[in-house]
Structures are given as structure tokens and as C-alpha cells.
Amino acid sequence: MKWLPPRPPAVSPARRDARSSLSPSATLPATGLTHVATVSFLASRAAPSLQFFFALGGGIALARAARTRGARVGYGAALASMLQTVAVMGPARISAPLTQAITAPMMGRLQDRGVRPLTEFAACLALRLVHYAVMLAVFIYVILGGLDAFTGSYETLTGWLGIVPQGAAAAVAVTAAGQVLWAIFFSAVQVAAYRRALGDWPVTEAAAGPEAPAAEEHDGRRRFDPRAVVVAALLATGILLCGTAWWLLLAVTAWLVPAWLLSRPDNSGLKLGLALAGLLAFAALTGGLLSGAGWELTLRRALRAVLLVAVATWMRAAAGAPGLRETFRRALHRLRALPSVREGAELMAGLDSGPRLVAAGRAAADRFAEVELKPAELCDTVTAWVAAESGGFRPGPPAPASRLRLRAPDAVLVALTLAPALVLLPG
Length: 427
What we know:
mainly alpha; globular; 2 domains; 15 helices
């Protein structure tokens, strides 16, 4: 494995006006690092490609938080940043930043303990492979409809070659081998970038930025309580995972359409949901037709994939970003006895879901405008942006707890969500 070369003593252009410091007194606030991770992860989810590289800055921020503040704070920052991105954009396309959130705090602690690069690489690779295995299983059994469909599409694509092994075991093995190769590449880049960034962390001399405004409070104009919306979305998702019968799919659609129209939705995340729905529908259609499953079954599987994304998109639209933040805040408070949950709740309370995210994104774009496309220079630029943005972030006062109240319409929403499950009852 070829690691990035050590940084020369001279200060690179990306680290102008910066000095190295690893002392605890000079560590940056964990809330600022969580804010940077949120910005990076949002960019990764919105980008049409290269999601891993957009999320890499967020991973560096989380690794820094874990190295300087401990594993509990590091994973708390990861939890807070992921929930914040879900509140802003909904749960679509979280795979790339989720891998960084899972691995970065661990890698920050390993580097703090002085482990060798190969050990850190092996740990990162192991977690990444577990994540890939889970995502592959979801794709096979939820989107394609099962191992038979996956095997059939594989044999259609490779059988004509005459030299590629066939069968279910071969289909899984070939796919897994490809994922292992990608995991090795991404893990190597991740370890090299983290070690370079954390090994010589810059402390900028720029003045602190303005205090973030108080987190926006749930406006109360939504027709449904955000907690009821989240429960309804989870129930609808569970029902969709139970099968692909036409009556089940039509019943969920019959519930979702009026629920969307009546919820006074915030449709700012609709474009992302439509893009993901189209992508999964295409995957389901091509996979089903290549496997010989037939049009009828393939259409049912594609419709279920679209409905799964539609339900998730509706949850974000119906609850709104402030509503989801408040729901997450209350859930974290109830689960505060779990490791890193209390830290995640405290960090999330200081984040801003609006102007500071946009300003941070523009600052990152300005830094990369004239950077040479060289690995070391790009890594230094990302690190400089993470250090400057997190160091200048000042948490605003937390918003007062929203006065949420469950009412009759909320109970009706949840009850009607369960109605499609009646088609699953025998006779």
C-alpha cells in the first residue's frame, strides 16, 4: 500500500498562516467539528457523484473530535451530524456519509494511541466491509426481491462469456470481490488522509465567526405532530417490507397521497427524493427483467422501491426540519443512558440548519477554486477548511423546547397508516 508522503517542513499554500498544535488546550470545539461534518455530509448526499470524497472532510472532523475529546464525543458528533443531515434533507442517500460516521471516530482514537497505519487500515476495512454487506443484503432482498432475482440478472449479464462461474454462490462471490476491492481503495485513501490531517493539525489565526442563530423552533403550522409523522413513516416502511402484493402497494399509495396533501408539506427535499426513487426504480426494473422475473412481478418490486423512498421523503416534508430536530432531540433525551447519546444531544443543540451551513459551503468552494488536483494539496486544503470553519464556529443558544401536542388528527394519521396492513391478515 502506498501512503501519501510526509508533509515537508515548509508550509504549503493550503496551510498558509497556520501552525501545528496537538495540545489539548488548543483543540477546537467539538460543536464546530460537528458543524463541519454536517456541511460535508450534506454536500456528499447532494452531489451526483464522488460522494466519498465530499464526505471525507466530515470524516476528518469526526476523527479530530474523537482524538482530542474522546470516543464518546467523537461518536456523539457522528450521531448529531447524521441526524442533522436527515432533518435537513430526509433519510435519502445516507450511505456515503454513514460509512465515514461509523469509521472516523474509531480511527481518530486509534491514531491517538499511536497505532501503525496497517492496523488502522485493517480496522477501517473491517467496518467498511460490514457496512457494504448490510447494504448489499438490503439491495438484494428489498430492491431486487431476493437472491433468485439477483442470481438471474447476474447470469444473464455474464453467462454469454462462457468463462465466468455461474450460480448463486458465484453471483455473491463476484459481487463481494468487487466490493472488497472498492473497500480497500476507499479505506487506504481514508487512512492516508486522516493520518496526514491529524498528524499536523493547523490552527488558524482568523477571528471567530458570528454566533450561530438559535435553532429554529417547530412552527406549529404543520397539520400533524412531527412525532406522529415519524411513527407513521416507520410503520408504512415496515408494511412495505412485508411484501409486494398489488393490494398492499395500492393501499399504501392510497394512504400516502392524502397524507402528503393534508400535511402542509415542505417540499424542499422533493428533488432529491425523486432522483433516488428513479434510480432505485431503474435498478429494480433492470434487475427483474434481466433475471426473467416477468413484467408483473418486476413492476411490483419497482413500485415498492419508489414507495419506500416516497414515504421517507414525505416524513421530511410533513415534519419539516425543525420538527425532525425536535423529535430527534426528544428521542436522544430518552436514550441518554446509552454511550455517546448524551454527547450527541448536546452537540446537536448547538448546530444551525440554515445560514451557517450555506456560508460554510461557499467558504469550502472558495478554498478549492484554485487548488491543484494533487492528493497532498487537496488533503491539506480540506484540512485547512475543516480547521478554519470549526474554529470560527460559535454555537448559538438552543431553541426553547417546542410545545408539541398530540391531537386527534395525529391519532387518525397513525391509525390509517396501519390500514394497509389489513390486507396481510389471513382470509
